[in-house]
Amino acid sequence: MCSPKTLSAGLSSNQGSSLFTAGNLSNKSILAGACAKRSFTGARPLKGIAGSVPEFTTTSGDGARKTANSVAYWLIGTSGLVFGIVVLGGLTRLTESGLSITEWKPVTGSLPPMNQQEWEEEFTKYKDSPEFKQLNSHIDMDEFKFIFFMEWIHRLWGRAIGVVFIAPAVYFAMRKRTSPQVNKRIFGLCALLGLQGFLGWWMVKSGLDQEQLEARKSKPTVSQYRLTTHLGAAFLLYLGMLWTGFDILKENKWMKKPIDASALFKKLDSPMLRPLRKLSTALLVISFVTAMSGGMVAGLDAGWIYNTWPKMGETWFPPKRELMDSNFARREDQKDLWWRNLLENPTTVQLVHRTFATVAFFAVFGVHMYAVKKKPFIPKNVQMSIHTLMGIVTLQVGLGIFTLLWLVPVHLASTHQAGALALVTSSLILMNQLRRPRAGIRNVINSTLAKELKRSTQQAGTKIMSETAKLAK
Ligand code: HEM
């Protein structure tokens, strides 16, 4: 809310109140000016007003250009498409469709086979793949068409994201709708998107190449390392788009309402929020790492063993010889025993995922308890986010447990994957809400407020002079 009280609160309390009372300011004019202000020039240090307002130091900012809200909506919308493709990618894996297209043709591959002859050709190529020979030699053309279309839609969706992302990115940059800082981020996201296309094919290749499969002593499935890298890049792309979109909306809102922004900055600067800020970063990292360990479980089909919870079979932990099985070591001196088991042994990988999930749950629970205890110091929106996070992590753990107990049914496993995205999203929102404003935006807000005060002081001074002159007459 715009009010003289909040405007003065934005500056140091003494400065604000002394200016308002001593100068007998026209509050309305301050409010009208400060609240209506929409565009700002770059941050510039201001001279103090009657010695009461300090000089604000100039720090790095964006320059004069701010990013349009439409850019934020586009980024958040595109992140929704990335959410969708992650879930679709999971479904492609769960329906074992991912290895049905044996080539990578970024442009010509946009079209599916158009007639019977083209379908026959495509099927013949698939018949030459290790997956068909070792696992799927029984399937007919109709079944092939189903797995083909699952993978084809996944790839087409990826191409669509490329177009929906890159074309507007160029347009916004050319129309100067983006600040230089946002331009850099969008460029980074474009690069990540391009890389993601390569990672997808790099992953698929690991399931088509007989030599690689033999080296891994694996049935025809993709490497769990490559699957998790592909999944991780998708999560990063998604989070990067959301983070940038939220930042733009937040900063534009602050610039539109500098008084509110200034009061919020004061809250965010409070030492009481410092631990929570650090914890929110930790939560995002833990959620992300847990999700990646889930990718390893999925990549190794490790959800098909130990389908019990909370115990693993009859005991809390599988026997050590099974967790650290020497068959997984490839070096003669067995120096790789530990890490190979942690990353390649399905039993150990499942235990790792259970452990991370437990840590993630209790970390969120701990933060929730902390937030309840410190409620008076925590902004309302932050409290809401923590409650939401608590709900989502509980749901996610429940989904994970039932995915395991019920032997990885497609609908549950897919919902569990979407739940992981929801979890990182809510962690990201919490972290974004608690982040202190960067120096550039703080500077813009401060100089806007100082300008408004200066202008109002001058107006009030003129009014006093004219009133005094009237009285003197
Ligand atoms: C914070 C909690 C959790 C997160 C963020 C999380 C995240 C994930 C992710 C991202 C995947 C990969 C999905 C895919 O690529 O298809 C996954 C798979 C899996 N998770 Fe979790 N998980 C959590 C908790 C749990 C728990 C508590 C269990 C069971 C005790 C569990 C069991 C599984 C299983 C069995 C899979 C493999 C499903 C498949 O093959 O598709 N998860 N998890």
TrEMBL record:
Transmembrane segments: 71-91, 156-174, 186-204, 224-246, 282-306, 351-372, 384-408, 414-432
Subcellular location: Membrane
Assigned GO CC terms: mitochondrial inner membrane; mitochondrial matrix
MF terms (GO), sorted A to Z: 2 iron, 2 sulfur cluster binding; heme A synthase activity; metal ion binding; oxidoreductase activity, acting on NAD(P)H, heme protein as acceptor
Pathway(s) per entry: Porphyrin-containing compound metabolism; heme A biosynthesis; heme A from heme O: step 1/1
One Gene Ontology biological process: heme A biosynthetic process
Cofactor field: heme b
Membrane protein topology class: Multi-pass membrane protein
Keywords: Heme biosynthesis, Iron, Membrane, Metal-binding, Oxidoreductase, Transmembrane, Transmembrane helix
Entry keyword Magnesium: no
Membrane in keyword set: yes
Catalytically driven reaction(s): Fe(II)-heme o + 2 A + H2O = Fe(II)-heme a + 2 AH2
InterPro entries in alphabetical order: COX15/CtaA_fam (IPR003780), HemeA_Synthase_type2 (IPR023754)
Stretches of the chain forming a coiled coil according to its record: none
Entries under Pfam families matching the protein: COX15-CtaA
Protein name: Cytochrome c oxidase assembly protein COX15
Organism per entry: Huiozyma naganishii (strain ATCC MYA-139 / BCRC 22969 / CBS 8797 / KCTC 17520 / NBRC 10181 / NCYC 3082 / Yp74L-3)
Gene assigned in the entry: KNAG0G01560
